[in-house]
Amino acid sequence: MDPNSNLSPMDMMKIQANTLYTMDNQKRLLSINEPDGGQAPALFIGITSVGQCSYYHELLPFTLIEELGCDANLSLDIAKLIRRVETFKPVKSVWMGPAYAFPEKCGEWHPNVQLIESHRSFLLEEHFPDLIERVHEKMPVTAYVIEESAIAVCCSARISKQGAEASLYTSPNFRGQGYAAEAVKCWQYHVKESGRIPIYSASWDNMASQTVARKLGLIQFGVDLSITTTS
């Protein structure tokens, strides 16, 4: 973790969980934390060097939660957790990957990177038209711009009072050239300026996203595991 930060890896993991999902007063998962909602996983486990925290869908039976809690406290056996969850409903997907915090300073971003506010959303038209109507939901939105066209974008996938989770897009013809990392530098700065903590995560099989994390010197604070069932 950042030596200048007072947040432990477990603190960061709890902030991330509350940024990714909406929860009830008992910390049961209600939905994905996006304007349109979406199905929350049956089980989310945040694993850190100092322990782990587990969150369960609001509809899971209490007896199943107890069983999953016992399983999660042992050495992590993902196959066993999946079998447990499938006593409730069939498992649709399993997601796992590293979660990162940002260092105190990420360095200056390239001059071509711009903050995209609503009046500048025309820069998204060529490569990211689907984002135009959602710019106000995903602020801050930053982009590497070439000839009045955004070719790499970083925005807030999910936002809470304490944190913001990064979402990264690069137009296929411009991948692998470092543009995305420059957009992320600018994004994390504006997230911090808003008083929130920027968070970055990637699945284990998303090597491009992990490469961005390495380029920026991000600090891994844990690993996320989510198991989602059919609705």
From TrEMBL:
<dbReference type="GO" id="GO:0016747">
    <property type="term" value="F:acyltransferase activity, transferring groups other than amino-acyl groups"/>
</dbReference>
<dbReference type="InterPro" id="IPR016181">
    <property type="entry name" value="Acyl_CoA_acyltransferase"/>
</dbReference>
<protein>
    <recommendedName>
        <fullName>N-acetyltransferase domain-containing protein</fullName>
    </recommendedName>
</protein>
<dbReference type="Pfam" id="PF13302">
    <property type="entry name" value="Acetyltransf_3"/>
</dbReference>
<dbReference type="InterPro" id="IPR000182">
    <property type="entry name" value="GNAT_dom"/>
</dbReference>
<feature type="domain" description="N-acetyltransferase">
    <location>
        <begin position="142"/>
        <end position="218"/>
    </location>
</feature>
